[in-house]
Amino acid sequence: MKLDAVGITNVTYPVRIREKGGALQNTVATISLTARMPSRLRQSCVSVFTTVLSKYRQDMHATVFPELLASVRRELEAEQAGLTMAFPYFLAKEAPVSKTSSLMEYDCAFEGTVGRRNQLFVRVTVPVTTLCPCSKEISAAGAHNQRAEVCLKVEPRGNKFIWLEDLIGLVEACGSCELFALLKRPDEKFVTEAAYNNPMFVEDVVRMVAQKAQAHPDIAWFSIGVESFESIHKHSAFAYVDSRDLTE
Amino acid sequence: MKLDAVGITNVTYPVRIREKGGALQNTVATISLTARMPSRLRQSCVSVFTTVLSKYRQDMHATVFPELLASVRRELEAEQAGLTMAFPYFLAKEAPVSKTSSLMEYDCAFEGTVGRRNQLFVRVTVPVTTLCPCSKEISAAGAHNQRAEVCLKVEPRGNKFIWLEDLIGLVEACGSCELFALLKRPDEKFVTEAAYNNPMFVEDVVRMVAQKAQAHPDIAWFSIGVESFESIHKHSAFAYVDSRDLTE
Amino acid sequence: MKLDAVGITNVTYPVRIREKGGALQNTVATISLTARMPSRLRQSCVSVFTTVLSKYRQDMHATVFPELLASVRRELEAEQAGLTMAFPYFLAKEAPVSKTSSLMEYDCAFEGTVGRRNQLFVRVTVPVTTLCPCSKEISAAGAHNQRAEVCLKVEPRGNKFIWLEDLIGLVEACGSCELFALLKRPDEKFVTEAAYNNPMFVEDVVRMVAQKAQAHPDIAWFSIGVESFESIHKHSAFAYVDSRDLTE
Amino acid sequence: MKLDAVGITNVTYPVRIREKGGALQNTVATISLTARMPSRLRQSCVSVFTTVLSKYRQDMHATVFPELLASVRRELEAEQAGLTMAFPYFLAKEAPVSKTSSLMEYDCAFEGTVGRRNQLFVRVTVPVTTLCPCSKEISAAGAHNQRAEVCLKVEPRGNKFIWLEDLIGLVEACGSCELFALLKRPDEKFVTEAAYNNPMFVEDVVRMVAQKAQAHPDIAWFSIGVESFESIHKHSAFAYVDSRDLTE
User: Considering the domain boundaries, does residue B1 fall inside one?
Assistant: First the structure.
């Protein structure tokens, strides 16, 4: 009986991710590495996986995926090999008015398989502010708002490469306002007013991200999930779409 | 633009689950409730969801799913409504030798959709011991072993109902040994020796659960994931199969 | 060498908590049970702990603590026994305008020791809204706001008993606004405006809770921590005080 | 009313930690930064904190703590400033027989305060194997074993500096066996037999670490907690000691 996936999960490893600007960014990844296994598999798979991971640790990044997966697949004589690599990724951002620079963190991931299926997915989780249109409309002053997380997962078209920076930028333009690590007083005034002037439900955020992702020439498929940590409730508001359901 | 799912997540609620023996078990569920939304959706969806949840809170269990989902769908004029309800579930177990009874906890969930798709999934996560066959074979004495978690998710055939108790029992028979909350000394001797005499890799556990699930007359589809928290490593060993891939 | 604590942690158990109104509420607790051990300890401590826990499972609540701890201590001939029991606790709340009732969840805990020290602590974690005074002051319209969590831990004076309901109510009066599971439109207008008219930093929330706790006749000691999940940042704002530092 | 701590938590930041060998290791830290506040505090504290953090981000490590905290304290005119910085830390380890090198991850932290109290704590969390003495003694063959986590927190004596590498090494010598990321077959035989020949309860691990910490000339105070993820139970075994209680 062949299994879809046998391997190791929850491996933590320092990795370097290539930035759009060309530099290599140091971060720490949580990794899963699996293979679709022939029935006669020797049990050394964990050892093979770990050896391959160790070999690439000095310079592991997205473009290395096909090569790394191909060697796992070859060593194990597996029909298919799969790798997921999730990591915090940092971008320097300028505050909107004072232009003070600070570092924002985004949870990102690469997922790939080589073998029966050859696929690569890129995933970014981007925090934004959502300000409730209903609350604004019915209230004499103010409107409830909160942090929300937008998770955008894309499959690039053909051999196209999509930068994390571009996906993050695409999403940050789609909330009531984007977030910053450091804001001076004029910046705080700016983001407060920007959010108030741009109320959005989670559904609105999903739709806006979906429109931009549909218009992107290098995205073949995407899914978008938004979870908003409501300031007036203990639960979250949530919306989700898969691009395959948009064409029905 | 229609979205696949709009709703609320991370709602915590006391619920009562019907046991195989007939009693109602009190537990606490984490709930997500969503709907596939028409484009003209009024924003009252969160209110509708919460109202419906409140209405069923005194006696919410698996058999209530279709009814609960149908009312959400109707109220929202949605094409589809979906509900996920995850909760700890408790079974009294007798220790293998002393027959002392103690209470074991299992993470369980029901997931359902009503509308374009009418589906119900039942999921159990069951802890077992895995004892490494390789470690036993090559060592003069002893063998490394550890706790592992088996996640079995099934779709019942047609309108069949499958008890959580039956799925848990199916899985517990498939590790090197099952777990107990309370073991006296003769019990501890029993489980230590049972595991030593029954070495299994994560792959072996997946295959054995898969064979039992394939043989079950009321299971239409299943997936099985096993994560073993290796005692000699900081990472986990992992194996997974989807029943659709077994027939290829 | 005597150890401060030996025992078991991460035990999950169904328990019943007595409500202020007299009823017993069913919930699920995460439990740690430890003892300060004599050097000659037999290794049966886990078994003793589990037996005692099993014995009290049908009706375990705060008033049972001294009795439960005393039996653990006696069985193990331990100098001291300690128990922590954390659980979600539910209160029915009426929405401020429509008076619609819904169920709110609060993370609560009892912690106790019997032996060298005889102590009991009661802990509630209560979500509130915080609306930023600075953001309101400098902005033409609106103000950033978000969910915050207030953790109040108290030691009752002497043999006084303090209800969870009373601690939760004390805290809910100290945010920019309290939270509800279900709000109709007039309620949403009410809470939006209430928060806008009552801006508070995390420091303000801590100070207000501290003043009420100081004024409470049955509270001998307390600590207060507030974490606010800022809607304009990815990090949290935080403030903390221990009542012993207020008198210096 | 002065508060013990006002500031920010859950800030994620790339940092560089100096290794014992002299190199700088890149990792990602989760940071809390607080100050004991004068009553007239301006609300710019978050801005000050973030500015100071940003300034040190290119080369932040333990020896920088007093300087970083002193500037926070000065800027805010605070009585006291506090910083906690937790991060995964990686060490290359050789397998015991094959000498194959692989990278192990350890959760580490620095905690410090400057002001009323001047303190620095260093914390390491080290995974080890525990093999149950009772299970070995009573069973015909084998013995249950599992991964355990040892958390050692120390306060260095005077101005002494203690390397993370030394604390990790101290703890790794105190389990039934230490863990490795990569083991060849002869290594797996070695660690299996080593654990079987060295059975230890969680209490034994705590006592052995305590003896080594007491004997260390540069450790003024310590606490040790061990949690063992029992392979035959769903709960954990736990033991804890604070060095102040050893001298009573």
Answer: no
At a CB cut-off of 8 Å and minimum separation 6, what does D120 contact?
D62, D65, D66, D110, D111, D112, D155, D156
Complex confidence, ipTM: 0.92
Q: Are strands A24-36 and C5-18 parallel, antiparallel or unpaired?
A: unpaired
Q: Is D1 part of a structural domain of the chain?
A: no
Check whether C39 has a pLDDT greater than 60.
no
Q: Rounded to an integer, what distance in angstroms lies between the CA atom of residue B35 and that of residue B78? A: 6
Nearest CA-CA distance, residue B131 and chain C, Å: 23
**Hey, of D105, D107, D185, which one would you mutate to test binding to chain A, going by the most A CBs within 10 A of its CB?**
D105
> B118 and B73 in contact (C-beta within 8 Å)?
no
Contact D133, D200 (CB under 8 A): yes
CATH code, D114: 3.10.270.10
Quote the CA–CA distance of C104 and C13 in Å, as a whole number.
Answer: 21
Identify all chain D residues contacting A88, using CB atoms and an 8 Å cutoff: 12, 28
User: What pTM does this model have?
Assistant: 0.95
Q: Which residue among B50, B102, B181 places its CB closest to the CB of C181?
A: B50
> Nearest Cβ partner of D246 from C1, C41, C246?
C1
Pick from A10, A46, A227: which is nearest to B9 by CB? A227
Angle at D8 between CA D33 and CA D52, to 5 degrees: 55
pLDDT of A246 over the 90 cut = no
Can you tell me the distance from the alpha carbon of C28 to that of B88, in angstroms, rounded to the nearest whole number?
A: 8
What's the half-sphere exposure (Cβ side, CA atoms, 13 Å) at D141? Answer: 13
User: Is C239 within the bounds of a domain?
Assistant: yes
Residue D69 reports pLDDT greater than 90 = no
Cross-strand partners of A80:
A36, A115
Tokens 């925090």, located at residue: A127
The rounded mean pLDDT for chain A is: 90
Predicted confidence band of residue C4 (pLDDT cuts 50, 70, 90): confident
Q: Provide the residue range defining the domain that includes A25.
A: 6-247
Predicted confidence (pLDDT) per residue in C115-154, tens digit = 988 999 999 999 999 999 999 999 999 999 999 999 999 9
